[in-house]
Amino acid sequence: MAKSTAQNTAAATGQCLCGAVQFEIGIPARWAWHDHSGATRRAHGAAYATYVGSWRSRFRVTKGRAKITRFEDKATRTTRSFCARCGTPIVYERAHSPQMVNIPRALFGGRTGREPRYHIAIAELQDWTYLGETLVPLKGFPGVVWERPAKKQRRQVIRGQRTGYRAPDDHDE
Ligand SMILES: [Zn+2]
After folding, report:
1. 132 CA distance to ligand 1 centroid (A)?
2. N or C end: fewer C-beta atoms under 10 angstroms in the chain?
3. Does the predicted model carry a pTM greater than 0.70?
């Protein structure tokens, strides 16, 4: 959190990858949600994006306004702004909600005053999205963890319950 120099109200600050674009919103933000739609998935190059919605009047670009480029998607009546230097998505605007600007949660270094408890387009959730499955260290690769779905299924099918059973092809110690 930081104090806004303009209005001396609490603000959350964020920036793009290269730092050319910096901005702030007044906190608490209006709301926050996870967007699983195909358009957002591609725009971010990620399984989904988590956005923080702010009243437009409480959003301010504090550095690099000239570095921001816009892509208007006329089919969906949405506009996505991003840093022309590093490509980081900055603002996602939707025509049906013109008073709001939506900013990737990941760009903020601190708290925004809202937890992302809502999901949009959850039906498009990808089956490769990480959902908190149990992970274990991968032997021989420090810092790498992985999940072993085959082992868990084998346990359930063969033993009918969780046991200490281990298949011979498991790649752990
Ligand atoms: Zn940048």
Report:
1. 30
2. C
3. yes
